# Entry
Amino acid sequence: MKKTIINEIQNFAENYQNNCDISTKWGTPIIGFASADDPLFAELKSVVSPTHAMPKDFLASAQTTIAFFLPFPKSLTATNIKNRMSSKEWAVAYIETNVLIAKLSTYLKDFLQAKGHQSFTIPATHNWDEKKLISDWSHRHIAYIAGIGNFGLNNMLITDKGCCGRIGSFITAAEIEPDSRTDQPACLYKYDGTCKKCTKNCVNEALFEKSFDRFKCYEMLLKNVDRHSSVGYADVCGKCLVAVPCSHINPVMKKLQAKR
Ligand code: B12
Ligand code: SF4
Ligand code: SF4
# Structure
């Protein structure tokens, strides 16, 4: 079952970019599985917020959560390096990836339903508390629990294909063997205190070595909403993700491999 789902997700993402009237391209998705009863879910009540949901709050019969990371290609992130404002391509990719996550989740739900497994889909974003700017379903924590990456100083989940890309997650009653996770850092700062390039890239004094101001960050995102209104609603920025060592790879893994 695990292999089948991985194939379904990868094929859907590949066909989607070939067949539809869109401009964004994605690399092969990274996919991870966690048991809905993994004790780490309960910890999200303290790590994220006391109101963070448990898989069984959404689907009483939940057995598994599936997380997927859709990596952006280098050609896309290259467009977002210069200037204070985000590139149009980055804004378009944000909108198109959110649509892809919604369509892929619905496809997966129908696919599993046909095999007799109930499932529950969650939107890619905008499922947050407007006053706190925190969501009751944090995709990157779900993805961390499912073993597909670890957190960077820039707050991003850094996978084996870096952090430039978007994450979706999904709940199902199908019982699927969970993946293992490692506590090995994926961020150079967390590994040996070096790098911090993401903080230097921040364009609105939101991200520092010791603090992150989500409201200052959101202020910048809203400036890009105005700038890119011609492509839709794109609350983006992403300058702390691009032109950094973790944009497209896990830089700690690279460092460790070089030492061998
Ligand atoms: C609310 C929100 C925002 C808010 C607040 C962001 C924030 N960092 O809190 C605003 C609007 C400002 C925002 C901005 C951006 N966002 Co946003 N946002 C979300 C949303 C809806 C919920 C995030 C949330 O509530 N997090 C809860 C808070 C408390 O946790 P956190 O920020 O993740 O921080 C935690 C980690 O750093 C963690 N941590 C650090 N080290 C370790 C170690 C361990 C072991 C553990 C367990 C945890 C941990 O501790 C913190 C607290 O738990 C998600 C979608 C979703 N529903 O998940 C997208 C999401 C997080 N955003 C995303 C992106 C890409 C962005 C932007 C780059 C904008 C853009 N697209 O251009 C910026 C980046 C800002 C930044 N540097 O953090 C992506 C992240 C992809 C990735 N690779 O991780 C997500 C997952 C959307 C998606 N579907 O892909 N966002
Ligand atoms: S840019 Fe450097 S310090 Fe920042 S998250 Fe990436 S690896 Fe960590
Ligand atoms: S998304 Fe932009 S404003 Fe927010 S922390 Fe990153 S660089 Fe700073």
Strands lie at 30-35, 64-71, 119-121, 128-129, 134-135, 150-151, 157-158, 165-172.
